[in-house]
Amino acid sequence: MGLLNPSTAFPYAARALVPEFAEITLLPEPSAVYLQNWICFVVLAAWLVVSLSGGYLRFARRDLG
After folding, report:
1. Domain ranges, residue 6
2. What is the domain count for the chain?
């Protein structure tokens, strides 16, 4: 479940975009389908959408006036 951490997902996503990045990092090569590099883009997008939505909803529900 470490891949759900955005700090872990980012290097895998970077490795998918820049193949030379794989040569200079010590990340293990994933063998399972759910550990493929493209899944990290989904994880990062989910973190972005959920955190921004949660922040927006929390802010919208506050009475500022």
Report:
1. 2-60
2. 1
